[in-house]
Structures are given as C-alpha cells and as structure tokens.
C-alpha cells in the first residue's frame, strides 16, 4: 500500500495501515503546537482513516491536553472511573503493574455511549507497554452499515437504542481491579442506531454490545439477537485494524464511527502505563 502525502505543504506522511481503517502519521512532533494548516491536514486524515497512529512521540501531559483540545474540549470521565493526574485530572492514568491490576476493557465498545453527549474521540499515549502484548483492536462502523442490505439499513434508520453504564459499574465495583468505585447508575441515554458524522456527513452504526441495552420500545431479550448480529458483522476480521503497541506511540480514534477492544493477553506482572485524554462530542443525530 503506497504512502500518501496528507496534503500539500503539510509536512508529514500518511500511511494507511489496512483496508478497513487506520493510518500511521510520520514526520509530525506532537510536543509542538500545530499551525492551522497542519492541523487541518491532520483532521482530514482523522476523518478519512478514523484511527491515527503517531509513533515515537515524547509528550508531557499538558501537551497531550493541548493536542486533544484542538478537536474538542477536553473532559474528565463523567463517572470518574479512573484516576487522573494531580495537575491534570482530565488525563486518565491507565496502569497495570505488580500489585496494581488494571480494569478490563476486553470487550467491544464505544467509549461512554451511555452519556447524552458521548465523546468525539480519545488520545492514548503509551508510556510503557509490554512488548508484543496488550494490542488494541478497532472496527469501522461506517463500513459495517454499508455492508448491510438496503432493507436492514432502512429498518435501522428508524430505530433508537438505550445505552446504559450498568456493565461499567459492575466491572469497577465487583471485579478485582484499580478502577474507582462508582456510586450511582445514571439513567440510560437514548441515541439513534444510525448516526450522521458531523464532520463528514457520512452515516454509521452507533451501537455496541457492552453499553447498548436494548432498542427503544423493545425488551432487552428481544433486542439482544439483533445487537449481537450487528456487532458480529462490524467486527469481522476484514473490518478490523489491530494495533500492536510500541513505547511512545500516540494513538487516537474517532469514537463516533469506531468500536474498540483492548486485548487482555497479559497478567498483573506486566507493566503497561497509558495516559488517555478525551475530546467532548455532540449529541448523536
């Protein structure tokens, strides 16, 4: 697959990583402020590829916050499910090491879809990674919709779904991990099953097997077979990019058009330390 120039004068290269989604950006230093033309080219690559990988970065928390803020206001987790840095509470610390077992994320999901305004996307910085372990997988929900029959697309276009944080609360409160306890379960949020991307105008599925509880007006039992079918279609191997982490990778993804899955093939003795920032999003339409 040929390397493509991101834009005339942008000063960096875009290398697509697979046929479904994902691209590596080379020649860009995220510790420096991006001028407007360079940022516009990065944003276009983000819209085109959904997942961007910036290798070999050295960024401080304030620099990660500043880069994330170019896409949208940087927000803390609404349920405070992770510890933030003392000087930057919006930088979530995701850590696994001896005596400190990370909370599991080995399920397909779209971050915080139970919120009335789910995140635009996230920026994840790998400070320490267990080489060869702890990959993250992403799937393209726009292509997942396109691959469905016209009849199924038409039916889904008229549906909304309820998204609940119940599974997240059970994980943090009942399992052995370093996630923070969550006291209250918020009311489920109702979102369209097919949403329109505000930056591209393209449509994609917006459900996931972890937070999507049911279709509006249906029971969970009635809804689950269709939810499972759609998620199985979305996560077919040909629709997935699997990222193998390297130390000091910065990876960002568009939460509006991708689900992701954190592979848990390491134990509590592996050292894995990530910093995550999140850009606020809009109400799905």
What's this, in brief?
This protein has 285 residues and is an alpha+beta fold. It has helices at 36-49, 61-69, 141-146, 150-157, 166-174, 220-234, and strands at residues 4-5, 13-16, 23-26, 51-54, 92-96, 121-128, 136-140, 160-163, 189-192, 194-196, 203-205, 212-215, 240-243, 250-254, 258-262, 272-279. The longest helix is centred in the C-terminal third of the chain and has 15 residues, at 220-234.
CATH architectural group? 4-Layer Sandwich
Q: Helix/strand-derived class?
A: alpha+beta
Low-confidence stretches: none
Physical arrangement of strands within the biggest beta sheet: 1-2-3-4-14-6-16-5
Q: Strand portion, in percent? A: 25-35%
CATH superfamily: Clavaminate synthase-like
DSSP strand count = 16
Order of helices and strands: EEEHEHEEEHHEHEEEEHEEEE
Top CATH class: Alpha Beta
Shape: globular
Considering DSSP H and I runs of 4 or more, what fraction of the residues is helical?
A: 10-25%
The radius of gyration computed from the alpha-carbon positions, rounded to a whole number of angstroms, is 18 Å
What is the CATH topology assignment? Answer: Double-stranded beta-helix
What does the average pLDDT come to? Answer: 93
Count of the domains: 1
The main β sheet shows up as: 8 strands, mixed
Distance, first to last CA: 34 Å
Total helical segments: 6
């Amino acid at each position: 697959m040929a390397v493509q120039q991101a834009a005339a004068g942008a000063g960096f290269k875009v290398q697509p990583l697979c046929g479904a989604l994902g691209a590596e950006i080379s020649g860009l230093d995220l510790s420096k402020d991006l001028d407007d033309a360079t940022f516009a080219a990065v944003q276009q690559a983000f819209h085109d590829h959904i997942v961007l990988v910036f290798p070999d970065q050295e960024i401080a928390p304030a620099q990660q916050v500043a880069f994330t803020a170019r896409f949208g206001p940087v927000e803390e987790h609404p349920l405070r499910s992770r510890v933030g840095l003392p000087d930057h509470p919006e930088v979530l610390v995701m850590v696994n090491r001896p005596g400190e077992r990370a909370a599991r994320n080995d399920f397909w999901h779209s971050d915080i879809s139970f919120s009335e305004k789910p995140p635009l996307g996230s920026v994840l910085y790998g400070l320490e990674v267990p080489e060869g372990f702890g990959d993250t997988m992403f799937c393209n929900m726009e292509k997942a919709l396109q691959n469905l029959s016209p009849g199924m697309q038409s039916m889904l276009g008229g549906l909304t779904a309820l998204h609940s944080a119940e599974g997240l609360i059970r994980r943090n409160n009942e399992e052995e991990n370093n996630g923070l306890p969550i006291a209250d379960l918020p009311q489920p949020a109702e979102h369209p099953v097919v949403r329109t991307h505000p930056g591209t105008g393209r449509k994609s599925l917006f459900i996931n097997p972890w937070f999507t509880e049911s279709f509006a007006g249906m029971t969970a039992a009635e809804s689950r077979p269709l939810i499972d079918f759609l998620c199985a279609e979305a996560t077919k191997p040909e629709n997935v990019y699997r990222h193998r982490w390297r130390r000091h990778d910065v990876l960002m993804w568009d939460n509006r058009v991708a689900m992701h899955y954190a592979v848990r093939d390491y134990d509590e003795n592996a050292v894995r330390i990530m910093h995550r920032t999140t850009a606020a999003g809009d109400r799905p339409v």
